[in-house]
Design goal:
- The complex is a heterodimer of chains A (185) and B (127).
- Chain A is mainly alpha-helical.
- Chain A is built from 6 helices and 2 strands, in the order E-E-H-H-H-H-H-H.
- In chain A, strands 1-2 form a two-stranded antiparallel sheet.
- In chain A, strand 1 and strand 2 form a beta hairpin.
- Classes of the chains: A mainly alpha (185), B mainly alpha (127).
- At the A-B interface, helix 2, helix 4 and helix 5 of A face helix 1, helix 3, helix 4 and helix 5 of B.
Chain lengths: 185, 127
């Protein structure tokens, strides 16, 4: 699926399904981290009145992380191999060797914690200190590991970018943009 | 937190305790499977043959394990006697151990930077 939009002045804007899925993966992940943070803050002030809101935010975290998981997994299986080859041939091979390898492992941890969060928020948080500590721990871990995974994604993306820039400057690609032509000479 | 609300005994329901332990074990299993898969091409190929990609199989196995263990622990009476703080510590340690790897990166970047500058760990110039 490729959506082609021609701008009034300038080049055609092409948004591929790969771009949409990748950006959706990152967006769902960030939103999931924000809702986990929401659960964390509400739990610090747990009262009978906000119990429903905590449960709703926890459920939203699980749904957003599941959506991010599906988008990320689909993109990794179908589109990542080409980018991996670029990264490994570029100046930042550690973007794959370290960051993607770590992300592959943490990716599952965040999802399992997100599935656990709605279960833990079913406790009476306003009157049970152990349950409050548990929810704070799970929500805190989701925020920290989720943002680490987001940061790893940004580094992987940058690994692809500088590999392409290096190839463009060397003249390996035929589509070098005009802005880079002057740098080659 | 409202101090005027009466506190109950700090116990978790068996469902919560069961799923917390299931999550901790799933995280440990996920790490172990990833390590074994890296060293055994046979296992990796077998997992690949099930769903076209080894990571897809691993994700599905993780979810099934989490749900399966959660249900088993929830039904077992053992979980009613478990100290909730112990469960929280087990979960945090399991996740933190998995996340310890970025610490190695800092070490690698420092040694790479020293190598580039031609100095050793104490900042002395290498011969």
């Amino acid at each position: 699926v490729r959506a082609g939009v021609t701008l009034e002045k300038g080049a055609a804007l092409n948004i591929s399904s790969s771009d949409v899925i990748l950006l959706a993966h990152a967006a769902f992940g960030v939103l999931g981290c924000l809702t986990a943070l929401w659960v964390f803050v509400e739990t610090l002030n747990a009262r009978p009145a906000n119990a429903g809101r905590i449960q709703a935010a926890a459920l939203l975290t699980a749904l957003l992380m599941t959506a991010g998981w599906i988008c990320g997994g689909y993109w990794y299986v179908h589109f990542y191999p080409r980018e991996k080859a670029l990264i490994l041939g570029g100046p930042w091979p550690f973007a794959h060797n370290f960051f993607m390898e770590t992300k592959e492992h943490l990716f599952f941890v965040v999802a399992i914690l997100a599935f656990l969060l709605p279960i833990t928020t079913r406790e009476r948080l306003h009157s049970n200190s152990a349950a409050r500590t548990l929810v704070l721990s799970v929500a805190g871990l989701i925020v920290v590991t989720g943002l680490s995974v987001e940061a790893a994604g940004a580094i992987i993306d940058h690994g692809v970018k500088i590999a392409l820039l290096q190839d463009a400057l060397k003249g390996t690609h035929s589509w070098i943009p005009q802005s880079l032509q002057s740098l080659r000479n | 937190m409202d101090s005027t609300i009466a506190s109950e005994s700090p116990k978790l329901t068996s469902a919560t305790s069961g799923f917390v332990l299931a999550a901790a074990l799933t995280v440990v299993f996920n790490t172990a499977l990833a390590c074994v898969k890296d060293t055994s091409a046979r296992l990796k190929n077998f997992m690949k043959s099930l769903t076209d990609h080894d990571w897809t199989t691993q994700g599905l196995v993780d979810v099934l394990l989490f749900v399966g263990l959660g249900v088993v622990f929830m039904k077992s009476r053992m979980m009613e006697r478990t100290n909730p703080i112990h469960l929280i510590v087990i979960l945090v340690v399991a996740v933190a151990k998995r996340g310890a790897r970025p610490g190695l990166l800092v070490r690698d970047i420092l040694s790479y930077s020293r190598l580039n500058r031609g100095v050793d760990r104490r900042g002395r110039r290498r011969p």
